[in-house]
Design brief:
Structural class of chain B: mainly alpha
CATH class of chain B: Mainly Alpha
CATH architecture of the domain at 1-71 and 183-232 in chain A: 3-Layer(aba) Sandwich
Helix content of chain B: over 70%
Distance between the termini of chain B: 53 Å
Order of helices and strands of chain A: EEEHEEHHHEHEHEEHHHEE
Shape of chain A: globular
Strand content of chain A: 25-35%
Mean pLDDT of chain B: 89
Number of helices of chain B: 11
CATH superfamily of chain B: ABC transporter involved in vitamin B12 uptake, BtuC
Number of strands of chain A: 11
Radius of gyration of chain A: 18 Å
CATH class of the domain at 1-71 and 183-232 in chain A: Alpha Beta
Largest sheet of chain B: none
Strand order of the largest sheet of chain A: 5-6-7-3-8-9
Helix content of chain A: 25-40%
Number of strands of chain B: 0
Strand content of chain B: under 5%
CATH architecture of chain B: Orthogonal Bundle
Largest sheet of chain A: 6 strands, mixed
Largest interface: A-B, 25 and 23 residues
Order of helices and strands of chain B: HHHHHHHHHHH
CATH superfamily of the domain at 1-71 and 183-232 in chain A: P-loop containing nucleotide triphosphate hydrolases
Low-confidence stretches of chain A: 230-235
Oligomer: heterodimer
Number of domains of chain B: 1
Distance between the termini of chain A: 41 Å
Chain lengths: ~250, ~270
């Protein structure tokens, strides 16, 4: 059992109501130092909303959020940047915190985009930009990382490398990670705790426990359940640019 | 030194350009040009109130513009009207009310053209103090809120998630907009203030590759516009505001050639 001091953020029966409709409701979870908590669930199940609730972006929420750190790194799922701004990768790295050159270079090297440092943000491809986003989030050595589908649009080999990097960061910085991922393989290999959402928490626990759960099987199908229970690193699907899973 | 009206106008204009440079960049980045226009239109009401109560024009304009900005924020929250409709509603009604009040002020001589388009004869030593002290205060405040304001301009949720308090920065920036309108009204005139904010910054965008360089080019563009514009105004007896804005437009057109070159280089 961990002590309360290790808790970075805690959601108590949290939810968000928009136009009299609950986007997500009754979510309780906590992220601790050095632990990876993964949110899974179908499209529209409230994963991103839950992440934003944890980050304190929404003001009027149901339930409550206890946030114990302000050192947060965030990779949003969708980011629309206005290209009327002249912004290079280097400027973007220092968006929310001033960093020295070495820190920036190190983070960009880790995600494999150091060569893009002086490029204009508008000239990057989707996958390159995603790597810059991840570099920016880890460069400030946060206590809490919130990663909303951090490898969408990244090429196949890069995807595996970046997930390994995320795992390594979690160990080295002993920061807590709230991860949203469609990749059930990743969930199995790296996660400490899985929360399966579908407008509410449909089940949660260790990856093994979740895989055995009936509601999980109903949501993702028998095949997905087998991936989790007998983990083999065999990709049977590809990711589209939107972060969707497409079966081969 | 400040005995000469032209020197006073020049010093005032230079002070204004230093402040409109960086603020104008944010007006472009945050798409606030119509918001600036609305505040400027309400300035007429501020001026007339200053005349009736024999109060300082800059302070009166600042108060009225700030109140208008607050009303706008409230209306945005409480009505279902789109933002541009609300801006138009407030801009034209405050201009109309201001003009009606001017009609009642028959007991004082009133140079309405000077008010709308700027008048280099009108700048007093007192105005210089307000421009330079007020301007320094605006720039210091902007430096203080730069990080949260810029980060939330790039992406609001990133700024909010990483603890920068973008809402506070936005509220302070709104007040700064009212302040710049108040201090630049004498020299540019209330109908053209937004031009002074946008055109040098637009020129700077064509020349720059980072936010910092855009701010610097924007200040340089503003300074050149003021100097060229005021000399033209002196030489040809034109209103100072239109002369400055025309100079800014010429600089903008020149900056377009630089873009053509870079596009050529890329191909």
């Amino acid at each position: 059992m961990s002590t309360d001091q290790n808790i970075l953020v805690k959601l108590n029966d949290a939810g968000l109501q928009l136009n009299n409709k609950w986007l997500v409701k009754g979510v309780s979870l906590q992220v601790e130092k050095g632990k990876i908590v993964t949110l899974i669930g179908p499209n529209g199940s409230g994963k991103s909303t839950t992440a934003k609730i944890a980050l304190g972006i929404y003001k009027k929420i149901g339930g409550s959020v206890e946030k114990y750190t302000n050192k947060v790194g965030y990779v949003p799922q969708k980011i629309s940047i206005d290209w009327t701004l002249p912004l290079r990768v280097n400027d973007f790295m220092m968006l929310t915190e001033s960093l020295n050159k070495d820190t920036i270079d190190e983070a960009l090297s880790l995600t494999g985009v150091i060569h893009l440092k002086d490029k204009n943000l508008g000239d990057l491809s989707g996958g390159e930009f995603q790597r810059v986003l991840l570099a920016r989030a880890i460069s400030k050595k946060p206590d809490l990382l919130v990663l909303d589908e951090p490898v969408q649009g990244v090429d196949f080999t890069g995807e595996i490398a970046l997930y390994e990097l995320i795992k390594k960061i979690s160990d080295e910085l002993s920061c807590g990670i709230l991860l949203i991922s469609h990749d059930l393989h990743t969930v199995m290999s790296a996660t400490d705790h899985v929360v399966c959402l579908n407008g509410h928490v449909c089940c949660s626990g260790s990856p093994m426990d979740v895989a055995k759960n009936k509601e999980y099987k109903a949501l993702f199908g028998e095949q997905a359940s087998q991936i989790l229970s007998r983990y083999q690193h065999k990709h049977d699907h590809i990711h589209t640019d939107e972060g969707e899973i497409k079966k081969n | 030194m400040f005995d000469d009206f032209f020197i006073r106008a020049l010093v005032a204009g230079i002070g204004v350009a230093f402040v409109t440079g960086p603020l104008g960049c944010f007006v472009i980045w945050r798409r606030l040009s119509y918001f600036g226009d609305t505040l400027a239109h309400s300035a007429l009401l501020g001026v007339t109130l200053a005349f009736t109560m024999e109060f300082n024009i800059a302070i009166s304009v600042f108060v009225i513009s700030s109140i208008l900005a607050l009303i706008l924020i409230q209306l945005q929250k409480k009505t279902n009207l789109p933002g541009d409709a609300l801006l138009g509603l407030l801009a034209h009604s405050s201009l109309a009310v201001g003009l009606v009040v001017v009609g009642f002020l028959t007991f004082i001589r009133f140079d309405i053209m000077g008010l709308l388009f700027g008048d280099i004869l009108a700048v007093s030593v007192n105005d210089l103090l307000i421009i330079w002290i007020g301007g320094a205060f605006i720039l210091l405040t902007l430096k203080f809120i730069w990080k949260p304001l810029f980060a939330s301009t790039v992406n609001y949720e990133l700024a909010e998630a990483e603890g920068l308090n973008p809402d506070r920065a936005k509220a302070i920036f709104t007040i700064l907009m009212a302040a710049i309108i108040a201090i630049s009204i004498k020299i540019v005139g209330l109908l053209l203030i937004t031009g002074m904010l946008i055109i040098p910054a637009a020129m700077a965008r064509n020349l720059s590759s980072s936010p910092q360089s855009m701010v610097i080019y924007s200040i340089i563009g503003g300074l050149l516009s003021v100097i060229i514009g005021l000399f033209t105004s002196l030489e040809f007896n034109t209103s100072s505001g239109p002369s400055i804005i025309t100079a800014a437009l010429l600089l903008f057109i020149l900056s377009l050639f630089k873009i053509k070159q870079t596009i050529k280089l890329k191909n």
